[in-house]
Amino acid sequence: MYRYDEFDLSFVKQRTEQFRDQAERRLKGELTEDEFRPLRLMNGLYLQLHAYMLRIAIPYGTLSSKQMRRLAYIADKWDRGYGHFTTRQNIQYNWIKLEDTADILDALAEVEMHGIQTSGNCIRNVTTDHWAGAAADEIADPRPVGELLRQWSSLHPEFSFLPRKFKIAVTGAPNDRAAVKVHDIGLRLHKNDKGEIGWEVLVGGGQGRTPMIAVMVRDFLPEKELVPYLEAIMRVYNLYGRRDNKYKARIKILVHELGAEKFRSEVEAEYARHPAQTTEVDQKELARIAEYFALPQLEKLSRFAPHFEQSKLDNKEFARWARNNLAAHSTQGYTIVNISLKPEGGIPGDATGEQMRVMADLAERYSQDELRVSHAQNIVLPHVKLEDAFTIWQELRKHDLAAANYGLAGDIIACPGLDYCALATARSIPISQAISRKFADLDKQEKIGPLKINISGCINACGHHHVGHIGILGLDKKGEEFYQITLGGSSGDSASIGTILGPGFAGEEVPDAIEKILDTYVKLRQPGEEFLAAYRRLGPAPFKEALYAAA
Amino acid sequence: MQLLRNNAFVADAWATLADDAPLAEGARAIVSFARLQKEWDTLAKHTGLLGVAVPNTLRAEELAPYVSRLALIVLAFPSFTDGRSYSLARQLRLDGYRGELRATGNLLPDQLQFMLQVGIDTFEVSERFPLEMWQKAARQMALTYQRGFTHAADEREVWSQRHQGFAAWEEQPHAG
Predict the structure, then answer these.
(1) Is residue B162 less than 8 Å (CB to CB) from chain A?
(2) Of A3, A395, A502, A524, which sits 20 to 30 A from A58 (CA to CA)?
């Protein structure tokens, strides 16, 4: 894991001091709310429906046990005993007082954390594959570049007042788990025949009210050119991105309006015009960072884990959890544990202070002191011995953390919606809870197979409904909440935007509608065919028929 | 309005000319970009110093033919959330412009350091904020991760400091 040195430490401390000063000036009335707004946003502080919300960066989703315990402490001391893990691999607290925020940021700085640029029209927290550095299919760990970009984008003098927010995702595996094609910039690592690393640079993907798949501007950018090339992209966006309408201000609109070719030539012209004098320091810095991300010293273990195998035979419930929630690790005898924060009827991504401490303890004892937050709002223990899995599962079960639904219908992604959010047009959480209860039967979930259900409470799409296999979008029609259903979205390698099936549904009708869709799929699928593949083969017709024909 | 330079309020030696106002010989005059283009043949022969006020939608290339003759470029920040002129300033400095860059518009002390770093020298600021607030704001963050920006003597580039033997990447030393 990356550790702060004296520079990182004093950088964050200076920033906290600066924010303390700004908050005091606001409380004294020396700054208007309009002026304070962009300043507080750049430190992660939102004003929501009921209270201030503080969003804390978890860079590329990686946490130590100590950091997780500090998050638990903040939940207990300054919030209502829980926190919400987000689709941006961050955590947010929903009940924060303005006068406490500087103290909270101090408490975070002590464990090398902050809220810098988790909001506002700047470069946001860089996200990546939640299995980075552990996954069996990985070419190289993308997190060193994630950290390099975290530093480079922190309080960038030129790019702190962009037309709109800016999100970068990085992946180092051929199976894209970081949704790089629906980010403002997506970076995909490749290795050429000579074993050199290069980055495929994708620009202009996004969700929100105008979902778009990113276009490729470079297929193999040499790693040493990454920072100067990204500066050229950012400069083109900062200068020419639209500022007349906030809904058309993301880079995807610029790429779309200019066209991919013209956009690419603008970037290349800017890049050629101001060639970087030297990238030597960038490379040295990347090499320095990379040392922190070396695979931890794992033991040489046998492929066969007798205790693990026996426990599966003895305990069907454990066997099911092991089947669904464990993923292949790059090292023999090890596994990746995915802890689902989606218990039956629960709020996706929420964890109590107590649960956070339990996960922190498990990580310290069994997972090299490391945890990850996934964009699907789950927690990952990345380096676990197969032989420890049963013990971990038993402990998780005691704390309502053993839902065996990872990657299934119950593993729903949802934004906070109208229960918390000032932008929302409808509630997301109760819909998610109702679907979760409807599909409580795990046999049924397993029979349906891998499935991504995503729920957003408004057109801004924080619940990523556009890329859900089944997407649900909550809207408001004359004071009544109603929900549009889209099918066929995906954020993976063959990313696609879901298409709207037909007229929307009232909230209480949604779970039945989802069931009809899934019944239709089960009936029509070919052996081994997953939902997304079946939808792509069948098209929307049979699903429309199932939903609307009877009515 | 007052003019801030090097942490002090200073007298402004420049006068902004309306598009139809005559240009006195030897004067330090700021003209609009439209006038600069239209009357370039005359303006190029001006005996005093010449400055131009540019909109933040201007492309740096459009300014290129005139730059060597300009002692001042005034950059617009119509609202404090409109960050286009940060990039324009940066482009001009990267292109080697060494004259004065001035920020005008809705400026907040909290943005001062970024503006200094992209190479802006002077600031037309309202009387709302006392000088001490500007002085403090100019120095709030002593560390930056980015390289190649303009730094005050006590500001440090983290990456250059970490890797011994690399002096801070001094981009384009300029007046100001």
Answers:
(1) yes
(2) A395
